[in-house]
Design goal:
The chain is of the alpha+beta class and 607 residues long. The chain is 50% helix and 11% strand.
């Protein structure tokens, strides 16, 4: 077949024309036609192709998708103008020139971010069923270039009596393109790419750079259409609007750490509406998970804490693993139905977090815990296999896999106790501060009647984790009275550095302390109040009372000094970022690289 020349006058990513929203279906609606006529660039032909496909897959994972089409990328052998369009069959077309331009005179990370935005823009059009920009591209192809082309295109677009379908006004088209910009930058950001590469407050404007490469300017010649400067300003406003709600995520994380699950759920759900990233879905899943544990514990505390399954809270945006014999019907305990509901919500959110990023380990570890909790041991093992392919020595994934393997054994009539114990021994050996494996090994040994070995592992667990419900269970297994040991623990004293804003009722002193911080109102369902931020300080006010204050620590304080002064924390929350949170009676500390970097203050009765 003879190859047709493409008249590249319009970049469909940044198109500003009023366009026909319906057009006759043709072969050009399908990626196969374009490949047949122009050819697809392969990894062997160009060194950037493999990298571009990786970026596309990352952005695709983060983007919204319609069930009736799954997006796919085709890079055409075109070295003319840079352009990208999406087709009704789900194909995203990108020219060789567009790919090369993204990486021209910049480092690879900057090129990745530029490309991520372009691809995100097209994926947004697919998600919203916007194919009018493809219709315009077809029109430009048909009528050629130059002043004559411009006049003929305008004649086609504005002679509405000659066409049998709806013509979008310029305002509608403008909004569609701005919407695609908005979603494109969010998709790219959720995939981990820096939005500042596209626009920033210092004058960076990738729109200008892109437009300067296009030989035809039909799409940019009408004064009623947004200019590159206007589009950049719009994107900056969207970026700022996301930053404006970041506090909702961080307060949601803190409320989760303080076991205020209902409140945490409200804050994170509100943040999700603006930025539905992998981290927020992971943390929402954890909230439902912990609520499920609480309901189960009301029915049977021993079952609720039979095993210590790994869970990971992502601070930057545990359960019984057993078959619930008879309990799934909801007739054994009135709380069981609520447990089932919450655990299914947790599984749903963890799966969404996994879909948002195919290399996100925390959500996979958490999903395996929820599946074990629900009695789906084979499903949990499949998820853990995925996690271990990403990181073969992940302690949480290995510990969970040992438990799932052990519990799966009876259903397939294979005793996997020995294999499970071997895995747990290896985890303990290589991760001497990971308490979950020691607890699970003690539990498995106890269930097999190996009491002496179990006793040693209970002691080892208590050396690693001396407070909390699991520590209480370990002491009970050792025959130690909870009151005789845990009861002697005195409440930790107040943190050495006082809160910059006093806790409690809002008064004149509070107002003075909050001076200079940015204020934002909170109206989230049953929660009302204000949130303040600035100078690395965050303050949460609920019902006219200061409930939570987060502030950097001024002096250098080591972990050893913290333990000698305040004792062991009630709980330690580990995070993929490397910042761990130590929870005490009236404050929490963020610890990184053996030093305290941030303090969180709250009232003692807040948790």
């Amino acid at each position: 077949m003879k190859r047709l020349p493409i008249i590249l006058l319009v970049n469909a990513v940044f198109l500003f024309s009023s366009l026909i929203t319906c057009y006759a279906s043709s072969q050009k609606d399908y990626g196969a036609w374009w490949v047949d006529n122009y050819g697809a660039l392969t990894e062997k032909e160009h060194p950037l192709v493999a990298r571009v496909k990786t970026v596309f897959n990352h952005v695709l994972a983060a983007a919204d998708k319609r069930a009736n089409r799954y997006p796919k990328l085709v890079i055409l052998r075109q070295v003319g103008d840079p352009w990208a369009i999406c087709l009704p069959d789900g194909t995203v077309l990108l020219t060789q020139k567009a790919m090369e331009m993204c990486y021209q005179d910049v480092d690879k990370r900057t090129g990745d971010a530029r490309l991520a935005f372009i691809l995100g823009h097209e994926l947004a059009h697919l998600a919203k069923d916007d194919f009018w920009h493809f219709a315009a591209f077809e029109a430009v192809q048909k009528f050629g270039s130059g002043k004559k082309a411009e006049m003929e295109i305008r004649e086609l677009l504005f002679k509405t009596e000659d066409i049998k379908c709806t013509v979008h006004s310029m305002e509608i088209v403008r909004k569609k393109e701005l919407q695609a910009d908005s979603y494109g930058i969010i998709y790219a950001s959720m995939a981990g790419y820096d939005p500042a590469v596209i626009v920033d407050t210092k004058g960076k404007n990738f729109f200008k750079e892109w437009v300067s490469q296009i030989t035809g300017k039909v799409a940019y010649s009408d004064e009623q259409h947004p200019t590159p400067e206007q589009r950049a300003e719009f994107l900056l406003a969207n970026i700022k609007s996301v930053r404006d709600v970041l506090d909702l995520f961080y307060f949601g994380v803190r409320l989760y750490q303080l076991a205020r699950y209902e409140d945490a759920l409200i804050f994170l759900e509100a943040f999700k509406e603006k930025f539905p990233c992998r981290e927020v879905y992971n943390n929402l899943g954890l909230i439902h998970y912990q609520m499920a544990i609480n309901y189960l514990a009301k029915c049977d505390r021993n079952r609720a804490y039979q095993y210590k399954l790994a869970t990971v809270l992502d601070t930057e945006t545990r359960a019984a693993s057993f078959t619930l014999k008879g309990a799934t019907r909801g007739d054994a305990c009135p709380q069981m139905a609520r447990f089932n509901e919450q655990i299914q919500d947790a599984i749903r959110d963890f799966k969404t977090a996994c879909e948002k990023d195919t290399s996100y380990i925390p959500a996979r570890v958490n999903l395996s815990s929820a599946m074990i909790m629900a009695g789906n041991y084979s499903g949990a093992m499949a998820v853990l296999d995925e996690a271990l392919k990403l990181k073969k020595d992940d302690a949480g994934a290995l510990s969970n896999r040992a438990v799932a393997m052990y519990l799966l054994g009876p259903s397939i009539k294979v005793d996997m106790f020995a294999q499970a114990i071997d895995i747990l021994k290896e985890v303990v050996k290589k991760n001497n501060e990971f308490s979950d494996a020691a607890y699970n090994m003690a539990r498995l040994l106890l269930e097999r009647g190996r009491n002496a070995a179990a006793k040693e592992n209970w002691k080892e667990f208590l050396n690693l984790e001396s407070t909390g419900v699991y520590a209480d269970i370990a002491r009970q297994a050792l025959g130690m009275e909870k009151e005789a040991i845990a009861g002697k623990k005195k409440p930790s004293p107040e943190f050495i550095e006082p809160s910059p804003v006093k806790l409690g009722d809002y008064d004149d002193k509070t107002e003075k302390q909050l001076a200079g911080l940015a204020k934002r109102d909170i109206e989230l369902g049953i929660i009302s109040g204000e949130r303040y931020s600035g100078n690395n300080i965050r303050v949460l006010i609920m019902d006219f009372a200061v409930e939570l204050v987060e502030s950097p620590v001024k002096r250098k304080i080591s972990v050893q000094e913290i333990i000698s002064t305040y004792g062991e924390p009630r709980t330690i929350f580990n995070s993929p970022s490397g910042v761990n949170t130590w929870l005490y009676d009236s404050f929490a500390l963020d610890v990184q690289d053996g030093a305290v970097i941030r303090a969180v203050y709250f009232a003692k009765d807040f948790i």
